[in-house]
Each structure stands twice: as C-alpha cells, then as structure tokens.
Fold:
Amino acid sequence: MANEKQTIINNNQNGQDKCPKCGATDIALNVKTGMLRCNFCRFEFSALKNNAERNIANLHGQIVGQGATDINQEASSLITLKCSSCGAEVTIDTSCVAQARCHWCRNILSVNEQVATGTIPDVILPFKITKQEAEGQIANFVNKRKFFANPTFKREFTTENIMGVYFPYMVVDLNTHAHLRGQGEQLRRTYTERINNYQTTYYDADLYNIERDFDLTINGLTIESSLDKLDNHSLKNTNNVINSIMPFDIENCVSFNANYLRGFNSEKRDTNIELLHPLMEAQGKDIAKFSVNNSLKKYDRGVRWDSIGFNIIGEQWQAAYLPVWLYSYMDKNKILHYVAVNGRTKEIMGSVPIHMPKLILTSCGIEILGIFIMLNVDFEYNWLFLLIGFIYYFLIYTKYRNNNARHKYETETTTNVANLKGSDNFVRKNNHVTNSMIQGANNHSISSQSLSAKIVDKVSKQ
Structure:
C-alpha cells in the first residue's frame, strides 16, 4: 500500500452553479438531456467535469478526494445557510437534504462549500433514465412474477411509489503490480472403469507450475459506502439487488453540484476509507486473478493460485453519488424487498415476496407427477424424476427473490494489463485420479464475498 497522501481540491468550490445566463439559482436536472436547466430562463448548461487523475498508470501514493476524507463524527449535521439574495438565514439538516428554499424570497440555497465533515461527495453521476422509463421497467419486471407473488404485495404494488435515489459510493482507481504463483492441470483423457458393478470415472492430467507477473490498472472500482447497503447478505433486506445493478458509467461523473439533487432523494456516506480499504484490497486481488484467465485457457482442470502478490503503487479515492430508481416493499416478515433500476443503464434487478403456500403446493404437485413418471417409464436414470419438484421450487424461488444476484466486479470493472510475463513449467503426470478439477482450484472464485458482512458486523460491535 502506498504511504504518500494527497487531497484533491474540488474544482467546483461552491457546490452550486448559478445560471450563467441570468444568474438565477432555481436550477434542476433535465433528465432527458443530462444537463442542468434554469427554471427561470430555461437555459441549459453542463456542470463542471470531474477533475480526478485520468491516467491511472501515473498514480503514486494515496490521493483522497475532499469528499472522501474521514467523517467528522463530532460535527453537527445541522448547518445554517445565508441567502445571498435577501440575507435571511435558513437551517437545514444535511443528513436529509443538501438544498433548501429561502422562505422569504424563494431563492434556492445550497451547501456553499465542501464542508469539513467529509459527507458531501466529490462527484455525482446525474440520472439519465426518466421516471416514466423506470416505472415501465419495474412494472414489467413485477408483472412477470405475479403468479407466485404474495397477494398483499400484488394488491399494494404501484409504480407511484418508485423513487429516484442517489446512493453514496466510493470510486477507487488503482495502479498496481501483481505476481501470482501456483499450479494448473491440463486434461489428457477421461475414462471409466467398472469394479463390482460400479462405474468410476478417472482422469489423466499434466501438472504445471505457473507464474504470472504484470502491471494492472483498475479504473472505477465501485464500493458501497453506506453501512446499511454494504451488507449484501442481510436476512432483513435485499441489498444485493441494489449491488447487482452495477456497474455505472463512472467516466461520465461530474463535480458534485447540489442542483442535481432537486427532485430526488439521497443518502449520506457513513463509512471511512480505513474501514473500506480491506474490502478494496480483496476485490483488487480478485480482479488480478480474473484478469489473467485468458492466458490460462489450456488448463481446463483449473488453476490453484497458492501465492497472490498484490502491490498497490497508487490509489485514488473519490466519494460519489450514483443514481438508482428504487421500489421498496416491507413484507409481513419484516423483510425489505427492493426492485432497482440503474439510473444510467436501465439494468434492473429485484426481489418479489413469494406466496409460499402456493409455491410449495405447486412444487408438491409437480413432485407427485415426477414420481408417477418415474414408476411408469423404463429409463436407466428414471430416479432423476424424483428431483423435478425440488428443481421447480428452486428455479421459481431464484427467479422471484434473486438472493444470489450481485455485481460481478471481478469481470465488470474496467482494467488494463501491461507488461505481462509468465512461466509454465511441466511438473509431472497425474494419472488415474478421481477428482474432475485440480484440488483447490481458485482462478474462477472470489474471496471478498463475505467481507462486507464482516465489516458491518465489526462496526455494529463497536
């Protein structure tokens, strides 16, 4: 990990733009164009661009955006804004809003600088998908799952409850060097042998010692920075649904401007870099493993990396607000279900509460049918029909709940591999083995899946 530390000074010093044409402050996002629009003279203009370092390979040390600095827990979330038009003072709670309207002259007020609490983000990615488009996406998603949906949910579902929310994330760029060492196996042949009326499958394979050494840049690794949303394995909510609609087109972020928040909800970041750094490193190692899989195609029995060296040369952290259209529903078991749409790409995922008696009864009926077929069909593997009811239950449950859905950061994050060097040295022939893959194969597995839950658990115990 790099030791140097530097803070980015945001190039949007006041956190708000006035209309460059008429000077009015009544400004909001035009979702259809992605530009800010003055509600007084109707002039549209673009916000300031994100001033982060674009050439990730040039990163050295740790660069922290002003909005990503540690949160000052002692600072009050109540701040007083002075109206630049009439001089009136208005108090707002920044835990809920970042803008207010002067009750005397109706001038729009905003946080006028990056406050020292580290809660105002560095950058924001404006909504690109309109509410009408999101409503259509979510309605279509739910309608495809209404047959087994909970009756109360079906009665109460309405697209009027869909909200646009800016969620807090940390966006991390990494300049790294990786060195991987392990073993891989290449299959030579597969065959079966019968012993005492039992057939056993055997494999012959060639074992190799493998090394890969390379430079790796990771652009826009995105990590939830709200403790509540960071836990993607909670039994009380379906946070994994929100996680799964990533990635966002981070390259189109602009410098934070509170005008983008008008008409939308937002959540505040409540985690610091120190807490998120282990998760970032674990995800970085996973990305490093997956980034060289194209050079391992001949090892069809898998690769077991025994040593993963991951040296961070430079890292750049920015706090970001990213857009999500969200429908939420609390079922009778106090489980919070989400249906979420990426506010930029239309990627959708959701969890719909299931009417379990109906699903169980239907699955039992299909299981009885499977037993009947098994008893009346002459087929060597007719016992497989015993599984048909269980398979049906699993498929429907997965379709409705999507509890395994997640953002595949290991393949969906933008990366670049350079100066790749490797060695593949034959060790020996492994003949007559019964395992179909090399023992401990991990080149297609991730290590950080449960780490976010551990972070949440650590904080809750403090």
Notes: Confidence is low (pLDDT under 50) at residues 9-15. The longest helix spans residues 356-376. The two ends are 26 Å apart (CA to CA). The chain has one domain: 8-55+125-351+402-461.
